Amino acid sequence: MREDGAPDKAGGRVEARIFLGIGAAVLGMTVVYGATADERAGTTMLLLTAGLGALTGAYLAHQSRRAADPAATGGNREVPEEAYLPHASIWPLGVGAGCVVMANGLALGAWALVPGAMLTVASVWGYARQSRRRD
C-alpha cells in the first residue's frame, strides 16, 4: 500500500503478508500438534507446510521490494514488446506422469522408481529442447 493507504500500488506486499501469516499460523499449529500428539509424520508435514508458506512469503516480499526500487533493476523498467510463451506441448504431461510414477516407486520399490525417473528425465530433456526453438 502507499503511504496514504491506497492499495493500488501494493505490488505484492499484501500477498507476502498473507503467506507469511499462513506460515506463522501453521507453525503455531505445528508446535501444538507436536506437543499433544505422539506422531512424527504429521509434525514433519506441518513443519514443511509452514516452511513453504514462509518461503513463498519471503519470495513475494523480496520481489515487491525489488519492484519498488528502480535501482535494483538497473533503472530499466521497460516491458518487452512481446513475451515469449512456449508452444503447446505434451512434455509437461510426461514430467507429471514420471513424477507420479517416481512417487509411487518410493512406496512400491525400485521397479517403479527407476522407470519414473527415466520418464521424468526424458520429458524434461524433450521440453527443454522444444523450448529452445522459437518460431
Low-confidence stretches: none
Q: Secondary-structure element order, as H and E?
A: HHHH
Main β sheet profile: none
Q: What is the helix content?
A: 55-70%
What would you report as the Rg, rounded to the nearest angstrom?
Answer: 21 Å
Helix/strand-derived category reads mainly alpha
- The total count of strands amounts to 0
Strand content: under 5%
Shape: flat
On the 0 to 100 scale, the average pLDDT is 84
Subcellular location: Cell membrane
Protein name: cytochrome-c oxidase
Transmembrane segments: 18-35, 41-62, 109-128
GO molecular function: cytochrome-c oxidase activity
What would your notes on this structure say?
The protein is an all-alpha fold. It folds into two domains: 67 residues; 42 residues. Helices cover 70% and strands 0% of the residues. The protein contains four helices and no strands. Helix 1 runs antiparallel to helix 2 and helix 3 packs antiparallel against helix 4. It starts with 12 loop residues before the first helix and ends with a helix. Belongs to the cytochrome c oxidase bacterial subunit CtaF family. This is cytochrome-c oxidase. InterPro entries: Cyt_c_oxidase_su4_actinobac. Keywords: Cell membrane, Membrane, Translocase, Transmembrane, Transmembrane helix. Pfam families: Cyt_c_ox_IV.
